[in-house]
Design goal:
Helix content: 40-55%
Structural class: alpha+beta
Number of helices: 3
Order of helices and strands: HEHHEEEEE
Number of strands: 6
Strand content: 25-35%
Distance between the termini: 25 Å
Radius of gyration: 20 Å
Number of domains: 2
Shape: globular
Length: 157
């Protein structure tokens, strides 16, 4: 049941993003409207921990608890801001993939370009459980990532 709910939520989010941004070209420049910072499991645990600390601080009136809670909340917001700025202005371009048979591993080549002077650190691509990277893209440079995805059936992946 939970897998079905997660899959339908993922489909809904993909359709919403497609309606909001339109269809993608081969080269995508990451602007403010195209960057979404979603929490990982670790981020969810962090948010739950900070919320529990807030409830405990309110309940017991612990000023040091409030201090630590708001310090960690501010740290989380600063980290999200730096993550957003690290991606802002980068260009992602699909370079192609070789044809494969069903059951083989398809390798997608994706270039990440940086037109800015400052480097883009720890850029990583993920598709479900498959990861490419992380790479550091130097200022004015380009790095190529290879994302390998196993094919389960014939046709488009």
């Amino acid at each position: 049941m939970q897998l079905g709910v997660a899959r339908s939520l993922e489909r809904w989010a993909a359709m919403w993003a497609r309606r909001r941004q339109g269809s993608d070209a081969h080269a995508i420049a990451l602007k403010r409207r195209r960057i979404y910072i979603l929490p990982t499991r670790f981020g969810g645990v962090f948010a739950g921990m900070v919320f529990a600390m807030l409830l405990g601080s309110i309940n017991y009136g612990a000023s040091l608890g409030f201090t630590l809670t708001f310090l960690l909340t501010g740290l989380g917001l600063v980290v999200m801001h730096h993550c957003h700025n690290n991606l802002l202005g980068a260009t992602i371009k699909f370079l192609g993939a070789a044809p494969v048979f069903a059951g083989e591993r398809a390798e997608f080549k994706i270039a990440v370009s940086n037109d800015a002077a400052e480097p883009r650190l720890e850029i990583e691509l993920k598709y479900k459980d498959h990861t490419a990277g992380p790479v550091d893209v130097a200022g004015g440079g380009t790095e190529t990532l290879r994302l390998g995805v196993p094919t389960e059936r014939r046709g488009w992946v």
